Amino acid sequence: MPKINNIVLVHGGFVDGAGWRGVYDILKKAGFNVSVVQNSTESLAGDVATTREVIDAQDGPVILVGHSYGGAVITEAGTDPKVSGLVYVTAFAPDKGESVNSLIANPVPGYDPPPILPPADGHLMLDKAKFAKAFAADVDPETAGFMADAQVPWGVDALAGVVTEPAWKSKPSWYLQVRDDKMIPPPAQEFMSKRAGATVVEVPGSHAIYVSNPAAVADVVRQAASGVEMAQA
Q1: In terms of Cα–Cα distance, which of 213, 181, 53 is closest to 189?
Q2: What CA–CA distance (Å, rounded) separates 87 from 224?
Q3: Distance (Å, rounded) from C-alpha 176 to C-alpha 201?
Q4: Is position 50 within any domain?
Q5: What SUPFAM superfamilies does the record point to (predicted)?
Q6: How many domains does the chain have?
Q7: CATH assignment of the domain containing 92
Q8: H-type alpha helices, the chain
Q9: Which of 146, 154, 206 is nearest to 177 (CA)?
């Protein structure tokens, strides 16, 4: 089994790939070849196609990493033969026939729903005034404010996109559970990670853990790369 040197990072809704910079820097310094997907988040099918283009451009096996909605993207795109392992960063991990919509249809009791504004022209946004508390509570205020003002409209079609064949059923997976997440409640994370049979790492932090604690995310990615190498040696 060749050494796993390729990491592909997939962002979630309301943001773009720039938030991965801290994780990218750590992994690059560790010697990995890191690619960041820039998805339009207009439709799941479109984002899967874009992600597969990046996977196909790699020169060997890939660890595919998804945050939040990016978890749905890697669940569908991860069946690509080049993908050797999946890393979910407080992410959705749908089963066959599920979508982000179906996973959030029944809110977890005791947790406030995310401050998502009503759809406008087929897109969703978070309330800017509540963005920091809900999405990025442990990110420095200036950065959290910038993230709120730089939101990418999330297409309602992307949330409705249904997974056809979940990659976690055939590929090893890791899941970074975040205890203080206000977007995907911890019980939902626990349900999805257990169902996927993922190796779980739990840390304190907000939904934007990849921004606030990139070292924790990079550690899980390194665990995944070494874990796959050991299993296939």
Answers
A1: 181
A2: 7
A3: 5
A4: yes
A5: alpha/beta-Hydrolases
A6: 1
A7: 3.40.50.1820
A8: 21-29, 44-56, 70-77, 100-104, 128-135, 141-149, 156-160, 186-196, 209-212, 214-231
A9: 206
* Residues labelled as active-site residues: 68
Domain range for residue 210?
6-231
Phi-psi category of residue 124: left, alpha or beta, with phi > 0 → left and psi -120 to 50 → alpha: beta
pLDDT band at 232 (very low <50, low <70, confident <90, very high): confident
Q: What is the mean pLDDT of the segment spanning 22-46?
A: 98
Say how far apart CA 141 and CA 209 lie, in whole Å: 14
Say if 1 falls within a structural domain: no
What percent of the chain lies above the pLDDT cut of 70? 99
User: What's the whole-model pTM score?
Assistant: 0.97
What is the pairing mode between strands 123-124 and 199-203? unpaired
Helix (H, G, I), strand (E, B) or coil at 81: coil
Strand 83-89 relative to strand 62-67, pairing? parallel
- In-domain check, residue 221: yes
The string of DSSP letters for 116-147 reads: BPPPBTTEE-B-HHHHHHHH-TTS-HHHHHHH
For position 1, what pLDDT does the model report? Answer: 52
